[in-house]
Specification:
3-stranded antiparallel sheet, 730 residues, Immunoglobulin-like, alpha+beta
């Protein structure tokens, strides 16, 4: 089939906007190099964990240059011992203009780091001319390689920073010197051959991830890999040194003779097996993915208001799997009524959001494509850097840290925001992929095909009954009878299971003119709504990286700006009619993806992975919850660097504690987490009035019982005066 490919960079740099505002022309040196890094990621293999690490390390290099030249804050690498790796720095005076010196240090550090980290990228021949051009435009000599910064040369300092980060990266557990290869992991299941009929014997255990076998695999960045069975990316990433991850949140497990860490273990997912409750939840989760595939038809007569007035504004998530059914709307898609009914007013204009009525099938298809990050992917962590850059360009943005104090320069804001987001994205990658490696959980493409091939589990009197088979849902999941068009010429498929779903790539010859549509297909042929050369990411499902990356990023952006809302009260991406979808024609109308808050965007991203056939609810919700914790944890540690109040650079101070989620609903519960006992907390409102005090150590704070109003509050330890700003929403 013919697939449309968009030009590199076109997706975001031209069409992504906030309330119609496009990119600013005057960028800081930090922004220039961040854009270069994102473009380098687009020209590399699509490895989210690798690029989350790249984004953090390059951001930390820029931050260290800032801390040294402006003599403010504590550097992350320079003069520190990071996870047992000492990095010496001798205080040095750099003569001349501080801003020019900083520009030179950042440029040399980023140039060296990008050249090193992407030296084996398939697009290296595009990357190098790009970064050389940046150096040439600044009249910086790329042949200058000295690292003797004590001479007072800011370029040498940049080279030294890069040299030390490169050395650290060889010992940080990523296996960079071995092309990030797994040392211990091996798949339980044989590969699923996508060009052959589904072979149930390839699934030795339906609770575990199954590799996919392609004639030609094309990763999410558009790189072809002929005759490939892609390996599990990042199965041992729990051994990579993170940013704010806490030793107390980790445990070690054995993986084929090797020891690997898992961080923030959310508990096991539901397994198909002897436990009837778990089996029922397993079926419910993966059946929902199949049912939502029927929502990809723009001509089914269903239309939604997808404006911020019609969707978004979720205030809480289910904390127990048995409550998932009270959150997701199985038959119609999205959340059940009353959970995400939108915002009454745009708080920036004090006006209602304009309705945007579009076919549900266009909305769901655009959602799946947009948040998958497309063939020119900067991967999910890079995607949120792109969103951050667009936020930073908006004319309504006020660059006040946490919304308070003096407005920061564009350069300082960029450097600090990159360090904040980079630390969070890196910690998400380490934590989430440690969980993926630990549980090695199955993806929908295997689970749906497997259950349906076993049969149905609804009617025990029929010959195709199997206790682990899929459950029948009239109009959505049914059995094939003898006169069914799917029965085959000789009735060979009679008795099998069929699903109403997106019909797959066989019906698409030309992606510019053809649509597969939704209809009845044999469940053994079920496909995710993804490109035929990609199908499903090459790593386990549980938990969702997209959900966790997005929730963590939304937390960082909310705390950074001191405002849960996008500048101007709305972010927007426009998918033009018949000029956006990659592997089939569409959408049938212009679709404006719109978000009032950062969390609205994150929640939309999470749903996109279900409609895209990649994750069930089991993977999603726990990712959203963990993301809020990791985002807040990373933000709080970064603040200590900015304020130069660290006792150690490798872990939290013994007296540190963390409160999350933040923001929180006025009727929500704040979780208090600490490694050690603290002696009570106090909550103050924005005018300094004491709202609540506990002289005893507490693990949670129920805001509903306090009957407080939305606003900004200060949560303060009465032991050491450590405090955290809490944003309370309606």
């Amino acid at each position: 089939m013919q697939i449309k490919f968009r030009l590199k960079n076109l997706l975001f740099f031209i069409t992504f906007c906030l309330s119609g505002y496009s990119y600013a022309q005057e960028n800081s040196v930090a922004r220039v190099w961040n854009e270069a890094l994102l473009e380098s990621i687009r020209n590399d293999f699509a490895r989210p964990v690798v690029h989350a690490r790249n984004l953090f390390h390059v951001s930390a290099a820029m931050y260290d240059a800032w801390a040294i030249h402006y003599d403010t804050g504590s550097p992350y690498f320079l003069g520190q011992t990071v996870h047992g790796f000492p990095i010496a720095y001798q205080p040095t005076t750099f003569e001349g203009d501080v801003e020019e010196n900083l520009s030179k240090t950042i440029s040399y550090a980023c140039f060296r780091l990008i050249a090193h980290r992407f030296r084996f990228a398939p697009g290296y021949q595009e990357i190098m001319p790009m970064i050389v051009d940046i150096m040439n435009r600044h009249q910086y000599d790329t042949a200058f390689t000295s690292t003797d910064y004590t001479s007072g040369d800011p370029a040498a300092l940049g080279n030294y920073i890069a040299e030390q980060i490169i050395a650290f990266g060889k010992e940080d557990g990523s296996h960079e010197n071995f092309n990030y290869t797994n040392f211990f992991y091996s798949s339980v299941n044989d590969p699923l051959a996508l060009d052959q009929p589904f072979d149930i014997s390839s699934v030795q255990d339906p609770n575990h991830w199954q590799p996919l076998s392609f004639e030609t695999f094309i990763d999410q960045s558009g790189n072809p890999i002929p005759g490939a069975t892609p390996a599990f990316v990042g199965a041992e990433w729990g051994n990579v040194k993170g940013f704010a991850l806490k030793d107390s949140d980790s445990k070690s497990f054995s993986m084929n003779g090797g020891n690997v860490l898992v961080f923030n273990d959310p508990g096991k997912p539901a397994y198909l097996g002897s436990d009837s409750k778990e089996t029922a939840l397993y079926k419910w989760c993966f059946q929902l993915v199949s049912v939502w595939s029927s929502h990809l038809d723009p001509y089914d007569g269903v239309s939604w208001d997808i404006s911020p007035g019609g969707i978004g504004n979720i205030t809480s998530y289910p904390t127990k799997p048995e409550d998932y059914a009270t959150f997701y709307d199985v038959n119609n898609g999205g959340e059940l009524p009353g959970i995400a009914d939108g915002h009454d007013l745009n708080p920036k204009t004090n006006q209602p959001y304009d309705e945007q009525i579009v076919p549900r099938g266009d909305y769901t298809r655009v959602l799946a494509e947009f948040w998958a990050d497309g063939p020119d992917s900067e991967t999910p962590p890079g995607h949120w850097f792109t969103i951050l850059n667009t936020v930073n360009d908006h004319p309504d943005l006020i660059r006040k840290f946490e919304g308070e104090g003096e407005e920061l320069s564009k350069l300082e804001w960029d450097i600090k925001s990159y360090f904040l987001l980079g630390g969070a994205m890196h910690d998400v990658a380490v934590s989430v992929w440690s969980i993926k490696g630990f549980y090695d959980y199955v993806r929908p493409i295997t689970a749906i095909r497997y259950m349906a091939t076993l049969g149905q589990s609804t009617d025990s009197d029929k010959n195709n009954f199997h206790p682990h088979g899929i459950q029948l849902i009239p109009g959505l999941i049914e059995e094939v009878n003898e006169v069914d068009p799917l029965a085959g010429a000789n009735g060979e498929h009679a008795g099998k299971i069929k699903v109403k779903a997106w019909r797959g790539h066989d019906l698409i010859s030309d992606a510019t003119t053809d649509e597969a549509g939704v209809g009845w297909i044999l469940a053994e042929n079920w496909w995710p709504y993804q490109r035929p050369s990609f199908v499903t990411p090459p790593f386990a499902g549980y938990i969702s990286g997209h959900s966790t990356f997005s929730s963590a990023a939304a937390t960082v952006l909310t705390q950074l700006t001191g405002d849960p809302f996008f500048p101007g009260g709305m972010g927007e991406f426009v998918a033009k009619k018949n000029d956006f979808l990659v592997f089939e024609k569409g959408p049938s109308v212009d679709v404006h993806l719109q978000w009032a808050t950062y969390y609205d965007a994150a929640d939309q991203c999470s749903l996109s992975r279900i409609w895209g056939g990649i994750h069930p609810p089991m993977d999603d919700i726990r990712g959203r919850i963990l993301g809020r914790k990791l985002g807040a944890q990373s933000f709080n540690l970064a603040q200590l660097y900015f304020a130069n109040t660290l006792v150690t650079t490798t872990k939290f101070k013994s007296s540190d504690w963390l409160a999350y989620p933040n923001p929180v609903s006025k009727d929500g519960i704040i979780t208090i987490e600490t490694d050690n006992q603290h002696h009570g907390l106090e909550l103050y409102n924005s005018v300094g009035q004491l709202i609540y005090r506990s002289n005893e150590s507490i693990k949670s704070l129920d805001l509903k019982s306090l009957d407080i109003k939305p606003g900004v509050y200060l949560l303060r330890s009465n032991e050491n005066a450590q405090s955290q700003r809490i944003i309370v929403q309606d």
